[in-house]
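pinned: reference chain
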Amino acid sequence: MEIMGIPANLSRRCKSKPSTHRITEKPPEEDVEMYGFDSPWPLCSFALQLTSPIIKLVVGNNHIQFNVPQIILCKLPFFQAALQGQFREASEKIIKMPDDDPEIVSKMVEVLTRGEYSLPSIALEGTQTAETRLQCKLFHAQVYLLGEKYSCDALCEVASRFLQVLPITGKEKVLEYMVLVYEMTSSESKLRLPSRNGPHNWGAEKTRKLIAKLWSADGGNLAAHRKDGILGEVCKRCPELARDLLALVCRGE
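pinned: its C-alpha cells
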C-alpha cells in the first residue's frame, strides 16, 4: 500500500536510538581554530590534522571509503571508544559503517573538518518543484538523524539550520514529510512532533490549521477520514504520528 506516493516498504536505514553520550570537554584553545564566525564546531588546526593518523571509514553496502584524521573523529564518543580502546579498529585504523549512507556520512565528515556541509546535488538543480523541495528537506532530516546516531551535535545544528529555512509547499506534501520522518526515526528523535527543542517549529496553532485544511479537503466527512481520507490513511499507516498530532493539538502548546 502507498500513501501519498510513499512506498510501504520505505527503508528505515537511519532509524536508531540516539546515543545518550555527549562531548563535555572542549579541546585546548591552542589546538583549535574556528571556521568563520558562526561555526558550531571547534576545528583542529591544519597542522594537527596533517600529523594525525588517518582512519579509513568504509561506508554502506558499496564500501565507499573516506580517509579522515583520527584527531577529528575522536571528537565523537563512538569513534573515540573504537579508536582508543582495545578493539580491532584501533590497530587496523579501519571502521566499517555498513548501515550508513555514504552521501550522508560525507556531510558529517565535512562538518568535522570544515564546520559546515555543502548542499546535496538535488538542491542545485535548476527547477525546484514541490517534490524536489520535499526530497531536499528529507535529505537534511537524514543528516540530522546521523548526527543523533553518533552524538555529533554540530552536525545536528547545521542540519537544523537547513530544515528551519527550507519550506515545503502543499498540505499533502507537509503531511507526507511528517510520515516519512516518522518512518525513519525512533520515538526519542527530536525530529518528531513533541520535541520542544527539535529543528522543527511545529506549534499547536500550525498543526490545527494543517488538520483543518486536510479535514476540509476530505469534505469534513468523518466516514471519509476513516476509509479514504488523507488523515484516515495517516492513522492507518503511521499511528504514532496520528497520536502525536492529536496530543500536540490537545495540549495547546
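why pinned: The longest helix spans residues 130-149. Strands lie at 32-34, 42-44, 54-59, 64-69, 94-97.
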